[in-house]
Amino acid sequence: MSIEIKFKDRDPLIFEKPITAREALEKIDFPKRENVVACRVNHVQRPLSWEIVMDSFVEFITTDSIEGIEVYIRTLSFLLTSAATRLKGIRLHLTQSMSYSYFYESPDGEITEDLCRELELEMRRMVAECEPIVREIFPKDVARAMMRAQKYEDKEQLLRFTGSDPVILYNCCGVYDFFGGALADCAAITPTFELRSYGGGIFLSGPTFADPTKTMAFVESPRLFRLIDSHTGWLKNLDISTMAGIHQQVTEGRARDMIMVCEALHTKLLSNTAARIEARPEVRLLCLAGPSSSGKTTSSRRLRVQLLSSGIKSATLELDNYFVDRERTPLDRDGKPDFEALEALDLELVNEQIAALLAGEEVDVPKFDFIAGKRTKGYKMRLSPDEILVIEGIHGLNERLTESIPADKKYKIFICPLTGTNIDFHNRIGTTDTRLLRRLVRDARTRGHSAEATLMQWPSVVRGSHRHIFPYQEYADTLFNTSLAYEVPVLKGYVTPLLKTVKEESPVYGEATRLLSLLEYVPVIPSDDVPNLSVLREFIGGSCFE
């Protein structure tokens, strides 16, 4: 029986027997062939070693895309942990990402500069000798025994609680592991990387989709590192660093206590932030910023309550009312209106009215009509002498937005889920995935959007965050981590049925499948015990701030 393989923007090919995706790639004229790291077969992400046995639509994933870089980094991570396991018998735990780099530490001791160099040399040998990365399938009990033999106790425990049977493992140089997505089928595909000894651990840096031929320059951020390291230590102390720990909490009936402890930490962090603002009486303007679905609305309202408990009154200025008229909106690279660009706001009017408000003057705040795409008559606003002004939006940290206000009068806060509970010590639930799960649930609840519509839009949202938001986080006076260790288990109950509505023929079916596969390792925690002031309520509903 013949097999027809269709491709995007090129003629289909007919084969008389099954063929791997890599073999199919070699049969077509594909630009930048060297940048291909994986593929999508009928919209589902697969390694290039995937055997195509029926009529299929195949798309190749390259490193000039976000998806391609994710495959690249996953593969590099496997090379690193494989080298550490084989050479030294040491375990590496992925604890955080920063500056497009990934930080590993070892429970077996400090990673020295010499060990870092030794591991990098071994990784480069694996690349030079084209060590194969083989996808294999094992019964769950066999996979558990293999993880136990490699001293990957977290993975063995996770498979004890959950996961499909059989289990897909990747093998490189005799070391086995499982991941939340496809890997390259050969180490030679990932030559661009760097290891850096830092803080007793290792930072692994790779390329970005903007330039996949160069390792992204590592930008040290001691403050961000300390904040994430502190939260990682907090999770470790509570034995909830990985989903195996969360499963244990649920099994032992301690999920409610865990929720309360996580919420108590948020309250403590907000109280500390309010105290820092109170210690600067000259501050008149609070600037809050963060990417989509970071929890800005709830965090800002809880902060205002916390400030009021100290006698500090505040008023909010909605930046969404300062959009320029639709015909003046700048265009993105696809020629579509770029509503996330800073220039989509009337910067001159924003600066003028903020300065006037802080001077005690009354201003006419416009109202933006999103249907008509124009500003209309709004309302009058004046600050009392004892009030501070709060602005919240994706550009809140960009100095151009408030350049007319002296620096000592401003306090800037970056709000984002910075780190959370991992699937296991080699597989993070990335902060981008956390925000996507939040947004899927919120968009379905408040906007009636299908999961497919949200998934289709998400890559544009991520690109906008990388352009307009994350470059400015270092200018913040405070970094507020909105992660909650229990949130993905709560979101799972809401988002799973939404993701299952995405049809096989949808271009985002593969992304829906990836998220569902990730959620297989996550327990379900009911939302009953989530307090109504929690940032999570902003997405699942029932917030006291709605």
Automatic annotation (TrEMBL):
Top-level lineage group: Bacteria
Protein name stated in the entry: AAA family ATPase
Pfam families referenced in this protein's UniProt entry, alphabetically: PRK
Cited CDD domains: UMPK_like
PANTHER family, per database record: URIDINE KINASE
Every TGS domain range: 1-62
Species of provenance: Cloacibacillus porcorum
InterPro entries to which the protein is assigned, alphabetical: P-loop_NTPase (IPR027417), PRK/URK (IPR006083), TGS (IPR004095), Thr/Ala-tRNA-synth_IIc_edit (IPR018163)
GO MF annotation: an example: ATP binding
